[in-house]
Write a structure and sequence with these properties.
With 150 residues, this protein is an alpha/beta fold. The chain has 6 helices and 5 strands, in the order E-H-E-H-E-H-E-H-E-H-H. It has a 5-stranded parallel sheet, with helices on both faces. Strand 1, helix 1 and strand 2 form a beta-alpha-beta unit. D-ribose (RB5) binds next to helix 3.
Length: 150
């Protein structure tokens, strides 16, 4: 796998079931996982779980993050507010591959109400298995990082 190290995982109630499947899959393919919750299917607020998971990625404690909510969108909006996080919602393989190759995304967001579990796990494999290309894309990421200082 291109991404090595511990994976931070979090969800809200809208992604609770898929988060369980993602964690089981990650462990099966040899990853250490830090589960930031939520730990019950009761209604909750996704920022409460996205932020600690993304903090662990931004600080380097975790190598990458996987966030699950109903659509993946709320989680991605929240994650992208955190300095150092480049989060992408993906629903199909091409974007999961290219958000690694071109954006060096470090957080994958998935929507339990949008995609089937089989697709979600396939996207996880692609995301974790793809390297950043660097080169001209690094210059673009530097411009994105500069936005954090505006
Ligand atoms: C919760 O109902 C839902 O809004 C949440 O899981 C997510 O889809 C938000 O973007």
């Amino acid at each position: 796998m291109a991404i090595k190290g511990k994976i931070a995982v979090a969800c809200d109630h809208g992604g609770f079931q898929l988060k369980g499947a993602v964690i089981a899959h990650l462990r099966e393919i040899g990853y250490e996982v830090k589960d930031f919750g939520t730990y019950t299917p009761e209604s909750c607020d996704y920022p409460d779980f996205a932020v600690p998971a993304c903090d662990a990625v931004a600080s380097g404690k975790c190598a990458a993050g996987i966030l699950v909510c109903g659509t993946g969108v709320g989680m991605s909006i929240c994650a992208n507010k955190i300095d150092g996080i480049r989060a992408a919602v993906t629903t199909e393989p091409f974007s999961a591959e290219f958000t690694r190759r071109h954006n060096d995304s470090n957080v994958l967001c998935l929507g339990q109400r949008v995609i089937a579990e089989e697709m979600a796990l396939h996207l996880v494999d692609i995301f974790l298995g793809t390297d950043f290309e660097g080169g001209r894309h690094s210059r673009r990421l530097e411009k994105i990082a500069a936005l954090e200082k505006r």
